[in-house]
Design brief:
single chain; alpha/beta; Nucleotidyltransferase, domain 5; five-stranded mixed beta sheet; 12 helices; 5 strands; 39% helix
């Protein structure tokens, strides 16, 4: 669409233009409340996150985690490796608390004795620039140029605040959903889960299944390099992000979450569950016939598209129709 040349000079908007009612060119309108909201979001974003990229986090992790596992304190490590760490002692404690390293709080004997301080910051973004080149507009352009790519939508389902969460990945075309139990809702937990999935499936099958991933803007997904690239530096997937507050852009997965809520209602803790419980839930949901699939099950559709070997590696099983249970009794112990 043609753009008016008047927009190339101040005030760069069409609010005061006398020709606006009859103009057919693309318009740009200033809205004070929206501009203020966008400014506040940028301000908050600029003050959150960590001041290190994935390679730097990995470098520090390789240095301090083995020493922590030997029983050394962060202070002792910092005293002897200050020039190598190149971060403050407080920053290292924060990184451990954010589960960015292999070593966790439980590995720090003294820290687990203290009640954590209350904080207004619920989550921190690992990479504040993660959306660059991965926005929803970029996603639309990419699938327009690559219409044959399989699309996987990714999200998390929470129980209670601070507890275990479920990582969900749905193959949009066949409605097949993978569910993985995470100890906490952090980027490190997501990275570890994806790496385990990568090892279970193998590099070739993983790259074939997870060609394209669409997710939201949660802090647990703000380390895209850890998802897209394996430990050898090989690209294994491509990730894009929905627009903020637009969960309907991955509506297929949101609809499937309703089935999870039938089994585990919102607000019910997930801490008592094991991965075996979650896999059982996954199998019952994937064995439920869908009218949108012409009354077939996601399991059967996935089998037709990717084969039984992929299902076996995912631990998927077909539940007989009369045994499918989508009630909390499925997980009762």
């Amino acid at each position: 669409m043609e753009i008016c040349k008047a927009r190339e000079k101040p005030p760069y908007v069409c609010n005061g233009c006398k020709n606006r009612p009859t103009c057919t060119m693309e318009k740009a309108l200033y809205n004070a409340s929206l501009a203020q909201k966008e400014y506040e979001e940028i301000q908050i974003e600029s003050r959150s996150g960590i001041c290190a990229d994935q390679q730097e986090i990995r470098r520090i992790d390789e240095l301090i985690s083995p020493l922590i596992n030997k029983g050394q304190s962060i202070h002792h490590i910092f005293v002897n490796h200050k020039s190598e760490i190149m971060q403050s002692e407080k920053t290292i404690y924060n990184y451990v608390d954010m589960s960015l390293f292999s070593a966790r709080n439980i590995d720090l004997p003294r820290k687990v004795r203290f009640r954590p301080r209350k904080s207004r910051h619920e989550s921190l973004k690992v990479d504040r620039m993660c959306r660059l080149g991965r926005s929803y507009d970029d996603y639309i352009a990419f699938i327009a140029a690559n219409p044959d790519r399989y699309i996987v939508e990714m999200d998390t389902v929470h129980g209670i605040k601070g507890g275990k969460v479920l990582l969900t990945l749905e193959f949009v075309t066949v409605k097949f959903m993978i569910i993985i139990l995470l100890e906490s809702c952090t980027a490190k937990e997501v990275e570890d889960a994806i790496n385990r999935l990568y090892d279970d499936l193998g590099s070739e099958l993983f790259a074939n299944l997870f060609q394209l991933i669409l997710t939201d803007n949660g802090s647990e997904f703000t380390n895209p390099d850890a998802i897209e690239i394996d430990c050898d530096g090989v690209i294994r997937s491509q990730i894009f992000y929905c627009d903020p507050y637009m969960s309907q852009q991955k509506g297929a997965l949101e609809n499937n979450h309703e089935m999870i809520r039938r089994i585990s209602p919102k607000g019910k803790p997930l801490d008592h569950l094991t991965q075996a419980d979650v896999t059982q839930m996954m199998n019952h949901i994937n064995s439920y016939a869908r009218s949108i699939l012409n009354d077939r099950t996601p399991y059967k559709m996935f089998e037709c598209m990717f084969g039984i070997e992929a299902l076996n590696r995912l631990g998927a099983e077909l539940i007989p129709p009369d045994e499918v249970t989508l009630r909390p009794s499925l997980l009762s112990k």
